[in-house]
Specification:
80 residues; 0% strand
């Protein structure tokens, strides 16, 4: 079966930015890029400082439960 009439061609009656599917195609990746940049900024600004080797070694030798309780205690309850 052969078509004799030409296919209907979209005459471009509306600009590309008014077609909803275009925003779905552009919006998804754009959202991911913005979220990645926000995550990178949070990671860089909130980075923990690097401990000197001596201080890191003392933390490694402290039992985990004692270190956790010491870090979670209010300032008034911490030993001097």
């Amino acid at each position: 079966m052969r078509r004799t009439e030409p296919l209907a061609v979209h005459q471009g009656s509306e600009p590309w930015w008014r077609i909803p599917m275009v925003w779905l195609v552009i919006g998804g990746p754009a959202t991911v890029v913005v979220a990645a940049l926000v995550t990178a900024v949070i990671a860089v600004r909130g980075a923990d400082p690097v401990l000197p080797h001596e201080e890191a070694k003392s933390f490694a030798e402290t039992p985990a439960l004692q270190a956790r309780n010491h870090a979670a205690a209010p300032e008034a309850d911490k030993p001097r």
